[in-house]
Amino acid sequence: MVAIKYAFAAAACVASTAAIEVSVSSSGGNATGYGQTRYGFLHEDINNSGDGGIYAELVRNRAFQYSRKYPVSTDGYYSINGAKLSIQMLDEPLSEALPASMRVKAPKGGGVVGFENEGYWGMDVKQQPYSGTFWVKGEYHGHFTASLQSNLTDAVFGSTKVKSKCKTGDEWVEHTYELVPTKDAPNSNNTLAITFDAAGAPSGHLDFNFISLFPPTFKDRKNGLRVDVAETLYGWSSVIRFPGGNMLEGNTNRSYWNWKDSIGPLIERPGFAGVWGYQQTHGLGLLEYLEWAEDFEVEFVLAVYAGLSLNGDITPEDKLQRFIDEALEEIEFVRGPADSTWGSRRAELGHPEPFTLEYVEVGNEDWLAGGDKGWNAYFRYRFPLFQQAINEVYPDIEILYSGSAYDTSSPGNYHPPQNPAIGDYHPYREPDDLVDEFDLFDNQTVRHIVGEVAATFVNNGTGFDGDLHPFPWWIGTVGEAVSMIGYERNADRVLGTFYAPVLRNMNRWQWSITLVQFAADPALTTRSTSWYVWDLFALHPITHVLPVESPAGYGPLYYGAGTDEERDGAMVWKGAVYNSTNKADVPISVAFDGVKAGTKAVLDMRTQAEGNPWAYNDPFTGVNVVSTTTEVITANADGVFEFSMPNLSVAVLDTDVSSAGSSSPSGGKKHGGPGHKGHGRPGKPPGFRPKL
Ligand SMILES: *[C@@H]1O[C@H](CO)[C@@H](O)[C@H](O)[C@H]1NC(C)=O
Ligand SMILES: *[C@@H]1O[C@H](CO)[C@@H](O)[C@H](O)[C@H]1NC(C)=O
Ligand SMILES: *[C@@H]1O[C@H](CO)[C@@H](O)[C@H](O)[C@H]1NC(C)=O
Ligand SMILES: *[C@@H]1O[C@H](CO)[C@@H](O)[C@H](O)[C@H]1NC(C)=O
Ligand SMILES: *[C@@H]1O[C@H](CO)[C@@H](O)[C@H](O)[C@H]1NC(C)=O
Ligand SMILES: *[C@@H]1O[C@H](CO)[C@@H](O)[C@H](O)[C@H]1NC(C)=O
Ligand SMILES: *[C@@H]1O[C@H](CO)[C@@H](O)[C@H](O)[C@H]1NC(C)=O
Ligand SMILES: *[C@@H]1O[C@H](CO)[C@@H](O)[C@H](O)[C@H]1NC(C)=O
Ligand SMILES: *[C@@H]1O[C@H](CO)[C@@H](O)[C@H](O)[C@H]1NC(C)=O
């Protein structure tokens, strides 16, 4: 630790006798003095955050996918004019991957018949181009009509005719169309209807499969992301972890997240028996995740299946090679040259450029699902064999261990990650515990990511399931901020911090604490209280942690500071006040070594105006309980910044004045704006890979 002298002590006394004096030295810092904690999130398809969530597909159950766990059905579909809808397993299915299809049989008397799909509990209909496709088998002379219509009234917002290409009925034929509604629907209780005139179908029925409809997507990516949902994550985040999470592990070792099932033409993807209560399409597959990271211009941590599933299936050592090979092939698919075996598959699928992949996580929470047996298998052979095999081919790839220095499967079974592996810590906590963990990484010698974190349980609650809060709430958010400052002041060994889970569809969920809530109706897309603080911290990045001292120690004010090389050496201080004891706001003076009188800094603050620790952002009221204030303040004659923070508040003081007002929930506007230089830039920002 570097000794700091309090050059400004006298001045601070004049300003306020009670001010907490914080001084930041201009050099020193941690062992390396170098490091950047990057902010991001884990995404896996939990509770329709993928299908029906950020994946823009509007049709639910589009290809009648099923698995041992989730039986095939016509869920999501309603018949029109008495048509009978049934699942058929035809001798000639659309593809091997999609053996089931839906037969639409006209009633006696025929007429115009068909089906509606209600989407993921509704569909947002606006005057914009929708791209549709459906496959049909069966002879049909005439046209189909595709319409977006109300589920509540007779209103039809847009409709188009699609000429039948089914001349003979011998084969599956794809029909594609574009539909531009002539008016916006007043709510999201809408369906997609597809009809045909039974008089043109000699057999009186037609078979349908892969019925899909996409609105415009984020950055116009085909098979891409839902715009408003993607925009809540875009701009501030600089790293994504995927594809799970528990999803990676799967329910059993026959139904883990097999990346090979998730690539290629959509009609060749069988889908995935999700671990969160529903069959998944696999439309958001490996390549879509990679393109997501590419479109966000962020780095990613790719997790590979490592021989442990949620039911406790453990792969014995003599059978592990198969999964090691799959991981090596997956890595080659991601970053191999276009003439390599799997790189050429990627090129075939339209992406000849290799992706930059530097972080591979072996498994997920291996200390948890399989108990001691799973954990022992992990540190004894599963992890070492994967690590060795991957580094043999890719010595530059950093390998992540799926447990942290703070995890054990059972007492006495402590096996922390060992250098050079990077650990992964997942604190789902009460706010008080996140505050207690402020110094958790101070003496840590092994690098970690905090691969999943959120305040989820109320203080003094009674256990994991009993007290999951309904939404991220203000005191929890401030608790997260305290932990995040703790991570960032140890940025040389905490490389990234990831909120999880990140998205929730309000129509079908169980895990309630997510950064963003949404439903079919974009008006419900809601940034939680925590979003406002993650956004704040992420948009004031630092590349070098600097030593900070205060005679007041820590609590109720928690703080850390650093400088950002990428923004011309801006000096940045981050602080949070958690449970102050004095009724007045907490007066603070911050002295940055070397900063002269008259220097300007942005003070960007997040508070809850009523000081209500329970306040949250409820999608159904639309009220944002988080107050954002941004002001430019000037260093006094001694070069000291003086300000105060209320109880339960979070603030950043940043001498890069152009970084003012980082938070702009209107999404796109924010990106590339002032204060954003350190993020979203292509390539690898320095500091994510400090070596201890
Ligand atoms: C790094 O800095 C943090 C915050 O100043 C401190 O808690 C930690 O002990 C330092 N670690 C080292 C190795 O200097
Ligand atoms: C509209 O859709 C929502 C979401 O599925 C549903 O909760 C609501 O009951 C629907 N409204 C009506 C009047 O059907
Ligand atoms: C559409 O209407 C059906 C039948 O009334 C109802 O069960 C369903 O919940 C509705 N869906 C939406 C999204 O409104
Ligand atoms: C949502 O996820 C939870 C697991 O957290 C699962 O138990 C539940 O069944 C899921 N609900 C639905 C309807 O998908
Ligand atoms: C799957 O798990 C079972 C234990 O439940 C194990 O006997 C079997 O070897 C595993 N198979 C593979 C391929 O990992
Ligand atoms: C870190 O180590 C120092 C020196 O041994 C000790 O005083 C301090 O309490 C430790 N901090 C934590 C959080 O364990
Ligand atoms: C902070 O205040 C909340 C609400 O009164 C309380 O539940 C919590 O235990 C307090 N925590 C600390 C560390 O004072
Ligand atoms: C909360 O629980 C902790 C630990 O059990 C205890 O020390 C503390 O007094 C409790 N606080 C409240 C407000 O009940
Ligand atoms: C600050 O907020 C916490 C949580 O509500 C509360 O326990 C504490 O009393 C508050 N402090 C003051 C000074 O009001």
Automatic annotation (TrEMBL):
Superkingdom as given in the UniProt entry: Eukaryota
Gene3D superfamilies documented for this protein: Glycosidases
Keyword Ion transport: no
Reactions performed catalytically: Hydrolysis of terminal non-reducing alpha-L-arabinofuranoside residues in alpha-L-arabinosides
EC code: 3.2.1.55
Extent of Pro residues compositional bias: 683-692
Statement: the UniProt record of this protein carries the keyword S-adenosyl-L-methionine: no
Biased composition (Basic residues): 668-682
Segment forming the signal sequence: 1-19
Stretches of the chain forming a coiled coil according to its record: none
Domain Alpha-L-arabinofuranosidase C-terminal: 473-649
Enzymatic class: hydrolase
Alphabetically ordered keywords of this record: Glycoprotein, Hydrolase, Signal
Xref: InterPro entries: Alpha-L-AF_C (IPR010720), ASD1_cat (IPR055235), GH (IPR017853), Glycosyl_Hydrolase_51 (IPR051563)
Gene Ontology MF annotations: alpha-L-arabinofuranosidase activity
A Pfam entry, by short name: ASD1_dom
Region (Disordered): 657-692
Family from the record: Belongs to the glycosyl hydrolase 51 family.
Protein name as annotated: non-reducing end alpha-L-arabinofuranosidase
Lineage start: Eukaryota, Fungi, Dikarya, Ascomycota, Pezizomycotina
